[in-house]
């Protein structure tokens, strides 16, 4: 989240962060967003009467802030299908594997257990499945023979911080379109938030 907000502030993403929502009022993200001058709201899912009521509250805050694109960053709640359909192709997420391989929980453990030589990170549009939406950007990361899940997670996280702002910049700048399940760039350029981000 911090990497994304800083990229917006530096003009690398052509968008204005409207609001940061967290599902816990004590989430550290809220204070970090406030330090960067972004409106931040904690909505405690534990005190909501139901999941439907909680997500209705989320909708109200998004509408009040005039949100056009929803960026998930460390948000672990499953979004209900009607919510996803309401914001079709306007919700993005990042996952620390090369989807469709190793969706869901513990992708680093899955990658090491399967003996893959390459894993990575994927930015994708959110649909009503689990990590199953159309892929926007991917970047590979080598898996070393002596890697622990924590080692692999650390290297992939560095790549996530590069490609997530890039993907958001592409979306916010209108450089993408959807053809069936394929997300295609309107031109050949990819905005770079780090000049050496392919490595």
Give short descriptive properties of this protein.
199 residues, alpha/beta, four-stranded mixed sheet
> Tell me about the biggest sheet?
4 strands, mixed
Mean pLDDT score: 92
Query: How many β-strand stretches?
Result: 8
What general form does the structure show?
globular
Rg, alpha carbons: 17 Å
Helix content: 25-40%
Uncertain runs are: 193-199
Describe the structure.
By secondary structure, the chain is an alpha/beta fold. It is 35% helix and 19% strand. The chain contains six helices and eight strands. It has a four-stranded mixed beta sheet, with helices on one face. The protein has a two-stranded parallel sheet with strand order 1-2. Helix 2 links the parallel strand 1 and strand 2. Helix 1 runs parallel beside helix 6. The longest helix is centred in the last third of the chain and has 24 residues. It is globular, with a radius of gyration of 17 Å. It starts with a helix and ends in a 14-residue tail after the last strand. The C terminus is likely disordered.
Q: Brief overview, please?
A:
It contains six helices and eight strands.
Could you outline the blueprint of secondary structure elements for this entry?
Elements: H1 2-9, E1 20-22, H2 28-35, E2 40-42, H3 51-65, E3 70-71, H4 81-86, E4 91-95, H5 107-114, E5 118-125, E6 135-142, H6 149-172, E7 176-179, E8 182-185
């Amino acid at each position: 989240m911090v990497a994304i907000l800083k990229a917006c502030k530096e003009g690398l993403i052509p968008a204005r962060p409207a609001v940061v929502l967290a599902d816990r009022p004590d989430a550290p993200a809220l204070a970090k967003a406030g330090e960067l001058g972004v409106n931040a709201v904690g909505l405690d899912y534990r005190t909501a009467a139901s999941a439907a009521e909680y997500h209705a509250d989320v909708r109200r805050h998004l509408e009040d802030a005039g949100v056009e694109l929803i960026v998930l960053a460390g948000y672990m709640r499953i979004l209900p299908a009607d919510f996803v359909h309401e914001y079709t192709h306007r919700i993005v997420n990042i996952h620390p594997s090369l989807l469709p391989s190793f969706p869901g929980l513990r992708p680093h453990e899955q990658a090491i257990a399967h003996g893959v030589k390459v894993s990575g990170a994927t930015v994708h549009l959110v649909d009503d499945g689990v990590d199953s939406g159309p892929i926007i950007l991917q970047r590979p990361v080598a898996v070393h023979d002596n890697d622990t899940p924590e080692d692999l997670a650390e290297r992939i996280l560095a790549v996530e911080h590069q490609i997530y702002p890039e993907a958001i910049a592409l979306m916010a700048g209108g450089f993408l379109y959807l053809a069936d399940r394929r997300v295609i760039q309107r031109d050949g350029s990819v905005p770079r938030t780090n000049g050496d981000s392919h490595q």
